[in-house]
Amino acid sequence: MSEQTKASARIAVPRDAGEGGTPPVNDSAFARWLADRAGQVLLQVRAEVGHEDGKALKAAGDQAAHDLLRAELSRWRPADAVLSEEDEHSRVAWTEGNRPDRLDANRVWIVDPLDGTREFSEEGRDDWAVHVALWTADSSAPARLTAGAVAMPARHNTHATDHPPAYPPMPLESATGGAIRIAASRTRPPAFVTALAEDLGAELVPMGSAGVKIAAVINGEADAYVHAGGQFEWDSAAPVAVALATGLHASRVDGSPLVYNQADPKLPDLVVCRKDLAPRLLAALQRHLP
Ligand SMILES: Nc1ncnc2c1ncn2[C@@H]1O[C@H](COP(=O)(O)O)[C@@H](OP(=O)(O)O)[C@H]1O
Ligand SMILES: [Mg+2]
């Protein structure tokens, strides 16, 4: 695709923040509304830019979804801070002379405009998502995630904390052969996950996007999502908010809580699973973490 065609394809995508009507006042319903709107924009970008030049498609998708989220958050939640993968100022770690506003805010939207960027660029794949989470600090409760939405536009499905999905049923042994199914990155599974799976007699289920992997645990398509070796707060905040609202276990791989809106937004590891599986999985993780 020529530079000119790429540019006109991007301009043709409607990103007018005025579309979409008045959003819900409730933060969880607002998160759903926002993630769905960004998801619609991403579907349009995919249709208009096409898959011929994957790099251009990734860049157009990241930018269009980020612009939509930024515009709607400043329009409808102007007093709140934002931590976005695509926002240089908010995402940098705190250093001398550079203190992001979010560190002094008591409401911070933690967003990943396009999680599973690689899968978004591959024709026919539906394992990519938009993440919108709200982190809140106030005197009445410890700082925590108070809302979250994960839109999976190519699956026409959104999980959000306004109507948390039902807790996943115990898998039928006849369907799984009794093996634990661990969702893992399809392109860069951490090395220790293979050893962990062998130890547990588990099966790895490869797929893209952290949000989609946690959705797979919620849906009962996988029993756990285990990751270590690198990730950021925006990769997990929204799906973890939904998983916790659903009643699932979500923690660091050492069992400690996942903590958000930190000076450095790196959050390199996590485990999300059914509560009954957590003790066994955490014990096995102790044996296999690098
Ligand atoms: N080692 C690592 N370091 C940093 N980010 C990582 C990572 N492994 C996975 N991620 C991020 O986690 C998300 C899911 O990755 P995967 O599909 O491989 O499991 C991706 O987010 P983005 O698509 O938003 O970049 C990816 O960039
Ligand atoms: Mg991501």
- Which stretches are poorly predicted, pLDDT < 50 over at least 5 residues? 1-18
The main sheet orders its strands as: 1-2-3-4-5
Secondary-structure class: alpha/beta
What is the CA-CA span between the terminal residues?
A: 44 Å
In CATH, the architecture of the largest domain is 2-Layer Sandwich
Contiguous helical run count: 10
Shape: globular
Order of helices and strands: HHHEHEHEEEHEHEHEHEEH
Strand tally = 10
The helix fraction, in percent, is 25-40%
* Proportion of residues in extended strands: 15-25%
CATH class of the largest domain: Alpha Beta
The CATH topology of the largest domain is given as: Fructose-1,6-Bisphosphatase, Chain A, domain 1
Would you write up a description of this structure?
The protein has 290 residues and is α/β, with parallel strands linked by helices. It has two domains: 3-160, Fructose-1,6-Bisphosphatase, Chain A, domain 1 (2-Layer Sandwich); 173-288, D-Maltodextrin-Binding Protein, domain 2. It has ten helices and ten strands. The strands form two sheets. It has a five-stranded mixed β-sheet, with helices on both faces. Strands 7-6-8-10-9 form a five-stranded mixed β-sheet, sandwiched between helices. α4 links the parallel β1 and β2. It is globular, with a radius of gyration of 19 Å. Bound molecules: adenosine-3'-5'-diphosphate (A3P) and magnesium ion. Adenosine-3'-5'-diphosphate binds at residues 85, 112, 115-117, 185, 187-188, 208-210, 229-231, 235. The site of adenosine-3'-5'-diphosphate has 15 residues, from β2. GO terms for molecular function: 3'(2'),5'-bisphosphate nucleotidase activity; metal ion binding. Its cofactor is Mg(2+). It catalyses: adenosine 3',5'-bisphosphate + H2O = AMP + phosphate. This is 3'(2'),5-bisphosphonucleoside 3'(2')-phosphohydrolase.
